[in-house]
Design brief:
By secondary structure, the chain is an alpha/beta fold. It folds into two domains: 1-77 and 152-235, Rossmann fold, CATH 3.40.50; 85-151, no CATH class. It is built from ten helices and ten strands. The chain has a six-stranded mixed beta sheet, sandwiched between helices. Strands 2-1-4-5 form a four-stranded antiparallel beta sheet, covered by helices on one side. A hairpin with a 2-residue loop joins strand 4 (55-60) and strand 5. The mean pLDDT is 93. The structure holds adenosine-5'-triphosphate (ATP) and magnesium ion.
């Protein structure tokens, strides 16, 4: 589904991603972990077209996507999470979820899609509220709705469960699982490793922009270099 090959990303000489290669297969839920500043967000931003890689290749279903604009990558079926509070504060919940659906559905079908999603994510009581008036846990559910509404093939999530209680995070986990059962592939950056352990079939660990381990959650979390990377940073 997704292949990243020898990807390098520098910011004015600072090496943020140092020759990373990995694959995400169709139907997988892959976790991407590493200490603060390891390069996780930069990897997601580069895959989704917000940054151009300095070197290397990114392929989605065999097609080169590096060099494409974010909306072009989105149209190929790759979508990513945003912090809604900063993004669409003056949109209602309904319109926020409607907007991405309009990329690949006529208005009447898009409306039906949104109604189904609002039902599925239990957003009925807040559908007419402005996104800016919601508490973080509600915004995260709306964000999942926005992601769902364009029928993506692969979704990149960056710390979507940060700041949520265990209960709230569990509801996001079950949404991810349901979508995955419907065939959506996920690449997930998350600091809460106990959540990833439950969710992912494979985890990739990075430090200083390089891959240091890859395997099952247990293999990666027992890996000496991974443990040292976290303890070394005081996490
Ligand atoms: N737009 C930017 N301009 C300059 N440097 C950047 C930029 N974005 C990231 N960096 C640098 O790249 C490195 C990787 O940052 P990145 O945000 O990808 O890490 P991260 O793994 O997502 O960290 P965190 O867990 O704190 O979110 C850091 O050294 C960071 O300072
Ligand atoms: Mg980050």
């Amino acid at each position: 589904m997704l292949a990243v090959e020898n990807m390098v990303k520098t910011f004015e000489g600072i090496l943020a991603v140092d020759s990373i290669s990995f694959r995400v297969g169709k139907g997988e839920i892959v976790g991407l972990i590493g200490p603060n500043g390891a390069g996780k967000s930069t990897i997601l931003e580069t895959i989704s077209g917000f940054y151009a890689p300095t070197r290397g290749a990114i392929l989605l279903e065999g097609k080169q996507i590096h060099g494409l604009k974010p909306h072009e990558v989105f149209k190929l079926g790759l979508t990513r999470s945003f912090q809604l509070a900063e993004f669409l504060p003056s949109f209602t919940v309904f319109d926020t979820i409607l907007l991405p659906a309009l990329y690949n559905a006529p208005l009447s079908e898009a409306h039906k899609r949104v109604e189904r999603i609002i039902e599925l994510l239990d957003l009925n009581s807040i559908a007419k509220r402005l996104v800016s008036s919601l508490v973080p846990a509600e915004q995260k559910r709306v964000e999942m709705g926005r992601i769902l509404s364009c029928h993506p093939k692969i979704v990149l999530l960056d710390e979507i469960m940060a700041g949520l209680t265990q209960f709230e995070a569990t509801s996001i986990l079950s949404i991810i699982r349901n979508l995955n059962e419907e065939g959506v592939t996920f690449l997930i950056v998350e600091h809460r490793l106990e959540l990833l352990r439950e969710l992912c079939n494979r985890i990739i660990a990075i430090n200083f922009g390089r891959k240091i381990a890859e395997g099952s959650p247990r293999e990666v979390m027992d890996n000496k270099e991974v443990i040292e990377a976290y303890i070394g940073k005081g996490a």
